[in-house]
Structures are given as structure tokens and as C-alpha cells.
User: Fold this.
Amino acid sequence: MTGTGRNAVLPTVAGILVLTLALFSAGQIFNVPISGDCVVADGIGRLFLANETAGRQALVGSVLWPPLPVLVRLPAAAFLPDGLAAGSSRLLSAVFGAAAAVMLASLIRSAGGSGWLGVATGLGWLALPQVHSAASDGSPSTLAWFLCLLTARGLYRWLENREVAALVRLGAGTAGMFLTSPDSAAWALCILVFLVLDTLASRTRNAQKEAVLILGVLPLVYAAGLWMLLCWLVMGDAFYFLRPLAQAASAAAPVLDPAGLPLSFWAPGALALFTVVLAGLAGSRSAALLGASACAVHVAGLALNFAGLIPAGGSFGAVAPALSVAAVAALAHSRLPRQAAAPLTVATGACIACFSFFSPRATPPLPQPANTAARVERHVAARSPHATVIVCGYDGFRLLRGSHSPVFVQSLDLDVRQVMADYAGHALFLLVPRPAGRAALESVHRKYPDIHRYGVDGALYDGDWNGWRLFQLFPPPTSELPPKH
Amino acid sequence: MNNAQHEENNRLAPDPLELSRVRPDLSAKQPVTRPQWFAVTAVAAAVAGTAIAAPWQTARAAVAAATVFYLVVTVYKLLLIRLSVAARAGIRVTPEELAAQRDTEMPVYSLLIPMYREPETVPQMIKALQELDYPADRKDVQFLLEDDDPETRAAFDAVVMPPGFRITLVPPSFPRTKPKACNVGLARARGDLLVIYDAEDRPEPDQLRKAVAAFARSDDSVVCLQSRLNFYNPRQNLLTRWFTAEYSSWFDLSLPGLSALGAVIPLGGTSNHFRTSVLRELHGWDAYNVTEDCDLGVRIYRAGYRSSMMNATTWEEACSSLPFWIRQRSRWLKGYIQTFFVHMRNPLRLLRDLGPVNFVHFHLLVSGVVFSSLINPVFWIMALCWFTFRVQALTALFPGWVFAAGALCLFAGNFVFSYTGAVGCYRRGHYDLVKYALLAPAYWVLMSVSAWRAAFQFLSNPFHWEKTRHGLFSHRKGGAP
Assistant:
């Protein structure tokens, strides 16, 4: 390896290792509870590796639970026992958190900041409560942050130097984000719009424009196409994974309540906007685009929050201050008017302070679902020794965390008739989540809109368990189900 | 001195088969040794036995092993490309270094151009070599002609040879291969440095100067510099577009990545620059190996030396005819099989000579290329059966993690390989070829056809050299640009 290559790679790897160790140890020492999203991703992975149809359905079936966070966990899920697999998920989120911080440092350096400023910014960002808690609780958000910063760095370097390596990073990053979370996917689409506009406006030959668009956009298009293909193969509907979006749109008209959003949401956005304005004045296109990319985090977050797909702010919002600070660094490196330096410094400090003090936790603490599953199991066992409980939706992975009972069968695409046919002779139960939050966008509520309230034909209400409603299914006496009332 | 005198002088026969005589253990003269036959037969029998006793378990194990192999190759390829784009891999000679060179200090440079029945390339080749920016009195150019090739000799008779250019006749003997001709040229070479060019090559004019500067900057362990190869007829047809994408990816991304790792480099067949003394110490090329370049690349490392990439390009003619392309590719893959069997005669010794890291590189680069080309069709057919007919029996062959890894290789790995070709085209400035690079999977089918042909030929006719037909582009277009 050349000296340059080795010099660049070794500190990066060392930095990631040290930070990973610190974040992972912090999670273990302070006994940070594992995030709910992590439990779902782990659960999907296990079911997928068990070669079950439900596992494949879970992997590709919803835009709210994209496949990449599951796929990166598969090696650990495949070869480690359950107890260690949870630890490995924490380790993984720590690795991506550390890699994101190192990527941020690298972005700052690329944007003209000194090495020390990069390191300080990376460490400072990791110290934000929302960031370090997600990096130690197994949350998949850290993967989205890493990919976002990778993409931002690619975008910046592409705009500055037109390096093909930067374009490849940008393409890979956007494709990865499309497969990581809905808010990161929305952000990735914004970035590609920037890229397309920039390319079309550039003064290069048409063949080169075409090549840039292919290299930059194709990975995301391919990822989307692949997701559709797999969805078609597994679910029989290429757009199945996008149905929650339509479901959200057709739900009761969502209301945008900007006042309800935390200050930590608005502060980085305001800083980014300020940076964009100053970059416009200073004539720094790359600083403006970096600031605009930070604004895009908010645009994407607001749009998805408005659609009811993500909670206010969303965990992806944690990259907004990182991108905003990078935009400030790029701006400082450009021909910034001297008078603007002081307000910019103050705005940056205020933004970071707001984000630090007013941030919500990245993901809500995990409820105690294992107890619920055990109680449901005891309940149905008392009814019949041959009981089977069909657990509907992705929330089922949280409910069944730690449970290996054969009584429970997960379903991501419930078909009541089919279930009755498949489990003929069993005492069959249906466990349906309350249609609230993301659970309202589960396919079971799309296919059977009143299932939680009224059940379905042949289902008899049997009880409520921490937001879950249990129905007992009674097969019809003949091969035909009675007509609907 | 006229051409006839040159020929007369060169009739003194050197030993073109030196390696096979001095180091038969490193020569492909005996393609497969007895212990190797025994080992191959034993493995085949064991696999057949378990397949009969437990067919599903055997198939599952085979699928799992192949999937792991695919996964490793995909990650390996990504690593190489990451290294090649991240660091300035290989030796980069700057214009300032070239400007600082003094003609009087330049070493004598031997240029070997083996030719066989390629009369149409003679004027172009002479012109290209004359245009090389190097002191004329320090160029030692040898055109290596076979004794039974009157057409090419006639073509040379029709031109006036510049000073320092000569013809060396290769006496007719078995095997009839390019490395044998090169060995004859090596024996008569006068230069301290030596380079091989093919008849249709167009090296960049400053290539020799760059090589001199690169050797001067390197330590003595670097004995070979590989220039980047690319084509001057990439847009002739779809095949040349794919071929260009492949070369752009291999020479501009993968090989610089290997160079950055300090790994064994399977040399390309042309534009390899050597320290002549070390090449002689290594007994030249193996006349029995039909990819003598790849074999020599491995032997260089086994002898404790190194190769490196250099930032100079030679433009070649991409084979534009499918039958000729398949023959050329079959020869390359057959040569890779020969190289594998030659160096795996004593795996422990190879491990000791190369070290564990380069041992792995050797297998991924040499064995891996052939193996993947051979087994690809099996997996393509399985994927096709699954997508088209949903053959349930296939599910049993793919337990959970194998399915996951296999799907990753199928969907992500194949995309990465195609995308890499596109990146290579972009880097090389072939912007309009980027979209064609994405159609590479069709090209891989041709590679698999060639691989199976190579495997059969390795068993039936291991030393047969299938000559690549050059000059097709010039013929069609009335002269290359």
C-alpha cells in the first residue's frame, strides 16, 4: 500500500475502533435499554434465517421497516445465540455511530476545516444525548446517520473536485439510505434531485452528463427496483411495501403542527438556512448545497411527520446539526464576509445548545413485552393444548422478544381464510395490535380496517393485553364462510 | 546492416525452453503431475461417493461452499476498488520527473515484439515504436518472427527498418507459443530494461521514459512494471464496448488496488517492463504456458521480487469478432488453469514462497476467476428456474444463511461488478460506454462459455496457442485512428 493510503486508513480504523469500544462499553455499563427498533430488526432477521415465508415477507413488506438494518444484522443473527445476538446489535449500532462520527470529521476536513476541528466536531456530535444513546442501544438509526454523512461527503467532494470516487460514495450512500429508513430515503431522494439539477446545469458533454447520472442515480434506482422485484416475488405485489404510504395518506387528514415540534428540530434547520443564505452571498456553491442538504433533513422529516409515518423530529433528525456544522465549516473556508463570522459562530453555538438540551431520546424505551407474551400463552394454553396464536404485524417482534414458544406464529400479510385452512384442527387465536402510531399502518389494518374494533368473520373477542387484542377464530362449519353481514 | 543480415545473425539458437529444463517444477510442460491427478481423482471420488450416499446434504454443502466463495470474491473485489480509488495506487511518474531526465543517462531499452502472420500491422507497429520518445541509439527493437511466416517477413522486406530495429527469427520447434519467441528475444536482448509489446499495440510515447523513472524511484525488489492497457477501438461493436469496460475496470481499478496492497499481480500479456537481468535470472517465460504473463507474475513474487502498476497506457486493438474473442478468452483461462496446477504442485512451498496473504491473492485471482466462470452457469440456471418455475426443491438447497448470502451475491454482488465496469469506463473517459458496462451480465455468459471450452482444451490440447486475430479494426475502417 502506498504511504498515503496507509496514512489515511489506519487512523480512521483506529478511531472507529476506539469510539466503538467507548460507545459499546457505555451501553453495557449504564445498562442502556435496547431500542424497540433494534428488537424488530433482530426479530425479522431471525425469522428470515429460519427460512420462513413470514421472515421474507417481513424483510421486504414495509417501507416503515426497510431491509438494510436487518441485512447488516444477519451475520450475527445467523451464527450467534440469541443472547449474544442482542449484544452484537448494540455493537453494530456503536460501530455505525463511531463510523458516522469519523465520517463527520472527515467531512469537516474535506470542507476546509482543520483535522482537530473535525475530531472535535465528531466527538461533540457523539456527545449529544440523542446521538450517543442511539449509538449504544442497538438502534438502526446510526446506520442511517453513517450513510447520510457518507453521502454528504460524497456530494461535497463531487461538487468540489468532480472525483468519480465521490460520485460512487454518493450513489452507494443514497441507495443504502433508501433501504434504511423512510426519512433517510426521503433525504436521499432530495440529494439526488440536487445531483440531477447540478449535472444538467453543468457545462459538460452530454455523454458525460449521462454517465454522471447513471453512476449517481443508478444505485438508488436499482435498490428501489430490487425492492419492488422482491416484493413482487414474495408478496405478489411489487408496490406492497409502499402501501403504508397510501394508507397514511388516506387516513384522517393529518395536521401539521410546527409548534408541536421540539426546539431541537428547528435549531439545526435555522442554522442550515442561515448558512445557505450566507453561502449564497459568499458565492460558495458547495457550502450552499451542504447547508441545503441539512435543510433537506427537515423537509424530509416534516413531510413524513405530516403523513404520520414518523414521529416528530424523528431519529434521523440527529444528523441535521452535523450537516449544519459541516456547512458552517465549508462556509468559513469560502470567501465569507468578515462581518458574518461572529453571527455565524453565535448561531452555531446556539444551535448545538438547543439540540443538546431539547432533544428527545432517539427511540422510546422498550415496553415490557415478554411478560405480555407469556400471559397470552398461559391464557390460550388454558383453553386448549393445541392453541396457535397468529401475531399480526411488525410490533409482534417486540411482543415476542425472548419468547421461543411454538404457540406464536407471526404473520405480516394476514389472510384469515388461509390461516384457518393452514391451521385446521388447532385452537386458533388472532393477536392484533392497536392501530396507533406506526402500528396503524400495518397491513392487517389495511386489509381488515375494523379488525381491532370488531374482529373479522368467525373471530370472537377474547381479551386485551397491553394494547393487543386477542380474538379466537372459529372455522366455519362448511367449506364456505357465511356471507358478510 | 540490412534485414537479411539481421536474420542471418539471429539464426544462432538460444534455449527458449530454459525454464522447463532448469526448473521443470515451475513449468507447465507437464500440465498435471501424478500426485495432482491422484488428488483430483480422490476429491472427485469422495464428492461422488457422498453425492450417492447423501445427495441432498452434498448438494447443500456444495451450494454453501460456492456461496461463501462468491461472497469472498465480492468483498475482495470491493476492497481492491476501494483501495484503487482511495489512494494513488501504483507508481505515478510526474511530467517534472520526465523533464529532468537526460538522454545521455538513459539505459538501453530492449523492446520485444512477437509477431505471427500479422503483416498488416507492420507499418503501424514500426510507426508507433518510432514515435516512442526515447533516444534512438538506446532503443533495441526486436521483431520476433516465426520461421514459417513468409507473409510477415515479406511485409518487413517492404519497409526500411529504422536504426536499432532488427528481426529475430524463431526456429520452428514445439511448442509454438509466444513465450517461446519471447525467450529467443530475451537471449538476444541488449538492454538493461526490457518490454514486451504486441504487434497491434500503440504505447503512449513517454512510456519508456516513465518506466525508467519508475524503476529508478523503486527499490531493487520491484522488477516489473505493468502499464495500463486499454483499447483504441472501443466503439467498434457491442463486444468491444464490453471488452473495454472490462479492461477499464481490471487495469484501472483492480490491478492498481492489488498494487496498493503489494499483492501478486497477474501480468497482462503486453507492456510489461522488466529489469532484464532479473528476467534472465528467472529463466524468462515458460514456453509451455499459454498465459506466460500471469505465470511470470507469480514467479516474480515466489522469487522474492515484486511488480507494480505504472501510470502509462498502451492502446491495443479489442478483439471485435465473437469467435476470435472466445478463442482468446479460452486461451487465457486455459493458461490460468495451467498456472494454478503448476504452482499448486507443492501448496506448502507456494504458501512459504508467497506468504499467506499473497497465497490467498493467488487463489482469488487465478483459481477464483476460472472457478467463478465455470460455476456461474449452474447458479444462473438455478436462479432462472426459481424465478420462472418456482422450483421448490431449490429451497432445500439454500438453508437460511446460505439463502441470505446467495441473495446478497445475486442481487448486490452482480450489480457491484457491473457498476465497477461503469466506474472504470468513467475513469478512463469512455463516458458513452458507461451504459454498456451495465449490460455486463451478458458478457459474463460469454466468459463462462470460454471457461468451459478452456477446461476441455486443458485436458485435450493444453499447449495449443489460439492466436488472436488482429487488424480487424484497421481492415474495416481503413486504418486505425
